[in-house]
Amino acid sequence: MKGGYYMKVIVVGSSHGGYETVQGILADQPDTEIQWYEKGDFISFLSCGMQLYLEGLVKDVNSVRYETPENAQAHGVHVFVQQEITAVDATAHTVTVHDLAADTTRTETYDKLVLSVGAVPANLPVPGTELDNVYAMRGRDWAIKLKAKTVDPSVKNVVVIGAGYIGVEAAEVFAKAGKHVTLVDMIARPLGLYLDEEFTDILADTFKANDIYIATGQSVQSFDGQDGHVVSVTTDQATYPADLVISAAGIRANTDWLADTLSLDDHGLINVDEYLQTSQSDIYAVGDATLVPYAPTGDKNRIALATVARRQGRIAAKNVLNHAVKMPAVSGASALSVYDYHFASVGVKTGTAKALGLETASVFVTDTVQPPFVDAAAGNVPVYFKLTYAPTDGRILGAQIMSKRDVTANINAISLAIQGKMTLDDLAYADFFFQPGFDRPWNIMNIAAQQALQQQ
Questions:
Q1: Among 34, 81, 87, 313, which is most buried by a count of CB atoms within 10 Å?
Q2: Alpha helices in 288-432 (DSSP H)
């Protein structure tokens, strides 16, 4: 309560961070007046579930969500869709609301404001972006359009711009749909921000075997059109035929409209303190438009993951209700499947260490998931693991794991090791279970740490 009455909290944005903020407030103080705003006509869509929908594993696009307006309203939340917050007056504690359906505006007051404004796809500054069949892969509207293209017989060649998680998901979706896919990126290797070359070298054969041509180390120069439709993509090295282009070349913070209200950094990210409060009192920010404390370095970093946004949402909810809780450091754990391979990574990689200003050492281990007496026909397949650590004191900084068996949960243990500032000595003999139906007597994390100690 505030001053003898329940607070009015406005939450802007219905994705991961906004959803968790609402849930956190309801869990702690359900009588709080909550107004929840979404610019689109659909709340709480999970773009990270889009591949499952596009491949038909999830049939109903409307089910790829956290929440429905009806359920939120049943818990006392006032949900507003197609309502865009266009301005904030921090002094007056008001926001300007543009009702997109009615094309009217109004002013709403707040006691506390939480901004989960997220990010939007980055627009490539090249000619041809306005052509038909140049798509993005973010949000429900694009999901529906992309689904139609997977069965469009006129689409034979697909060019995906961006070889991160979203781009690789798009490439796999359309390759499985029988299209020839070209995957373009400026970076040297697909998934280079998540995996080092020991892993991407293995995946390269998988991409090739599934009619995905890797065109990394190339810069897009133009989208080329004919009669208003895209027909090819030209890079600094080649021209690739394209009946459809999917741009997944990064994101930018959706904060231009806040530049005169809040302190932003040189990338347009909202500056927040350790309690997620912005430069204005009673205004908090969460999600992809912010930086978070990064456990491997102790500094702030941009970690655009749903898990991070959800944690921020819960912490913001506590601070909105005056509990004064600091945002905990995160390690940036994530996972993905590429055809038969399942991989996960966390923290610092060899490929990202330089940008973070870190000196690192690593050990790469190849083993089998189970003991040698278990036959490959029974599922005993290779597993690849790389452990990254500080050469000065052996502190664990990151790891990557990949196999055709799902052993990705090991990365959660490494995430805890990073957050707990564990060292090679701690990990080398850490206690993990053994059962030959599941794994080896020494967990691969033990083996890697033991080998790293030998090479110090």
A1: 313
A2: 306-320, 350-353, 410-419, 424-428
Token code pair at residue 453: 């100690």
Backbone φ/ψ region at 69: left (φ over 0), alpha (ψ -120 to 50), beta = alpha
346 - beta bridge partners?
399
The percentage of residues in the chain with a pLDDT greater than 90, rounded to a whole number, is: 95
Q: Is residue 225 within 8 Å of residue 127, measured between CB atoms?
A: no
Q: For 208-251, what is each residue's pLDDT tens digit?
A: 999 999 999 999 999 999 999 999 999 999 999 999 999 998 88
Beta carbons of 315 and 264 less than 8 angstroms apart? no
Tell whether domain 123-249 is in CATH 3.50.50.60. yes
Report the alpha-carbon distance of residue 359 to residue 67 in Å, rounded. Answer: 43
β-bridge mates for residue 399, sequence order: 346, 387
Answer whether 8-118+252-320 and 340-455 agree in fold.
no
Beta strands in 265-355 (DSSP E): 283-285, 292-293, 300-301, 334-338, 341-347
Distance (Å, whole) CA 18 – CA 308: 12
Question: For residue 225, what are its two tokens?
Answer: 């059109």
CATH topology for 340-455 is: Enolase-like; domain 1 (3.30.390)
Active site residues: 16, 48
Does the pLDDT value for residue 2 go beyond 60? no
Query: In the block, which residue shows the tokens 């990210």?
Result: 269
**Of 107, 80, 77, 78, the residue nearest 94 (C-alpha):** 107
Q: How far apart are CA 254 and CA 15, in angstroms?
A: 13
Write out pLDDT tens, residues 38-70.
999 999 999 888 999 999 999 999 999 989 999
> Where in the chain are the domains?
8-118+252-320, 123-249, 340-455
pLDDT at residue 5 tops 60: no
**Alpha-carbon torsion, ordered 257, 258, 264, 267, to 10 deg:** -20
Supply the pLDDT for residue 122.
85
Alpha-carbon span 327 to 193, nearest angstrom: 24
